[in-house]
Amino acid sequence: MKNSVVQSLHPAYFSMVMATGIVAIAAWFLEFKGISLILHYLNMAFYLALLAMLVARIFFHGKAIIADLLDYQRGPGYFTFIAGTAIVGNQLVIIENALFYAKILLWVALAAWVLITYSFFVVITIKENKPTLDKGINGAWLVIIVSTQAVSTLMSTLAPDQPFGEFSIFVAMAFYMVGAIMYIYIMSLIIYRLSFFSLKPDELGAPYWINMGAAAITTLAGSRLILNIDIDTPMGDFIPFLKGFTFFYWSASTWWIPLMLILGSWRHLFKKVPLPISPQVITWDTGAWSSPWECTRFVLFYFQKH
Predict the structure, then answer these.
(1) What is the pTM of this model?
(2) What are the tens digits of pLDDT across the range 248-265?
């Protein structure tokens, strides 16, 4: 069992669920229903298989779980479980209208968010031997934002069908705000790391594409809030603010795309780092960027109700 697949399972493997789910949702909105359904059911299988492996790892390889949590590079990978769970929940709402199962996944994602978020930040705060900034942080840390906004998106999507819908919108808004400010916090550190520490070509991997993806899903979370807030409630007062902030994050995510393409060309064409880099990360990021743009365009320019 020492070298089993379960023991060596990387915490970030749920990024595969994130990538497949966001593309399935985007395909559904673009009327590619057949492709969307195939990806939807395929992603259900991915999620259940990875969930079973994660549960087995918790029970049989607890020390490996703790070791990963203490690791600055692998620890943030656990946030992909939260994001993957919430994205699967969004799939169930959008593609199947399976509200009951989506609500279960929302509670799972919420519980995991509380447990993983506070465990990770407590651990890295009290840890005595800490790496330097250039060794400790990379784009993977932005999955913290992705997970937070994925929970916000699922919660706001389910809010109209909740008995306490306005309170659900309030909590979804709080998650959105936490994710938005965390993006600014963590992105400031990443920009500092990229600008003032040497960066080897092989270090500029797929996690840095999450620079764009985290802002993109923040755009999506804001868009879903705008669409689901009742203008006649107190939360309706936030709609103008959300429109501006949503466009702010869409602009930020779009800004990253040319830069990452240029840096990718430098990495692969000039420095000869072999392809490919992680396809699921780039697939998820581009899907996350395109989905909220359709929603944001609709909200900002055509949604006359607000």
Answers:
(1) 0.87
(2) 998 888 898 888 888 888
